[in-house]
């Protein structure tokens, strides 16, 4: 969003990105995240648990919790998959959509040096987006398709996918 405004409307940047608008965007995103997380937690809390209560996961996920239930958890699994797809693909779709608009706007710039400057501004962000989304999506796809049978390997892939990108963030920027 920031790159879109900065490249497509550079002279109006400070009037579009006001503190109030940023506060509303942040509040909206936090509200969405809370709503996405609250329903799986409520439904998992209502399940009967009669076996081990030891969660086999190093990450805060719903799947290892509802797998301990001694009843049908297909609804919880579907809800978890829908939540994961929404949380991953929603922002990724928005990012791709805004970058398509940015690329169209940049190709209309006459000067090659200005085009390069605009692409360079976006390149670091795109690199971080790829570094974050590719391993996370790979971990979830491999886990949901049960292509990783070894739980320790799945935990390692998931842990690397959520720790390496934030560590590289300050280096790339």
TrEMBL record:
Keyword list (alphabetical) reads: Membrane, Receptor, Transducer, Transmembrane, Transmembrane helix
Primary location: membrane
Leader peptide range in chain numbering: none
> What is the top-level taxon of the source organism?
Eukaryota
Q: How does it sit in the membrane?
A: Multi-pass membrane protein
Q: Does the keyword Transmembrane apply?
A: yes
Q: Which residues cross the membrane?
A: 22-45, 85-106, 118-141, 153-172
Q: Domain G-protein coupled receptors family 1 profile: where? A: 1-173
- Cellular component per GO? membrane
Record-level GO BP terms = G protein-coupled receptor signaling pathway
GO molecular function terms attached to this record: odorant binding; olfactory receptor activity
What's this protein's name?
Olfactory receptor
What is the protein's species of origin?
Cyprinus carpio
The gene that this protein is the product of is OFRE
């Amino acid at each position: 969003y920031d790159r879109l405004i900065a490249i497509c409307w550079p002279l109006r940047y400070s009037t579009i990105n006001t503190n109030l608008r940023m506060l509303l965007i942040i509040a909206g995103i936090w509200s969405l995240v809370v709503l996405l997380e609250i329903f799986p937690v409520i439904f998992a809390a209502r399940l009967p648990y009669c076996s081990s209560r030891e969660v086999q996961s190093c990450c805060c996920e719903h799947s290892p919790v509802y797998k301990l239930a001694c009843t049908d958890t297909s609804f919880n699994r579907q809800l978890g998959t829908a939540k994961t797809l929404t949380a991953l693909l929603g922002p990724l779709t928005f990012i791709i959509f805004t970058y398509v608009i940015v690329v169209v706007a940049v190709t209309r710039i006459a000067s090659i040096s200005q085009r390069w400057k605009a692409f360079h501004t976006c390149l670091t962000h795109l690199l971080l987006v790829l570094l974050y989304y590719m391993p996370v999506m790979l971990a979830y796809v491999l886990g949901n398709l049960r292509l990783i049978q070894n739980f320790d390997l799945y935990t390692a892939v998931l842990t690397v996918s959520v720790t390496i990108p934030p560590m590289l963030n300050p280096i790339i920027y």
